[in-house]
What does this fold into?
Amino acid sequence: MTSKLGIFSIIAGVVLGLFALISKFMDTAVFLSTMTISTFFEGITDKILDWISNDTVYNALYSFFYEIHLAGVLIGSGAILLIIGSFIRKD
It folds into this structure.
């Protein structure tokens, strides 16, 4: 099941990334072109960043929440799930 979730996450990330690239190529301001984690969890990400006092961790999480596109997060989490699923063969 974990490997299937990984494959679906990678496919969703690639499709979302393709739509974002097409919208940037056509110079349209579609919500897909600027979609990050903070788009969905705006209040929660602000609260998490307010709690952190270490500058290095703050900068890393800020770039993760606000600068990395959601397609990159989906592809990365899908790769991690696929690797985990290849070692756990209870599917």
In short: The first helix runs from residue 2 to 25.
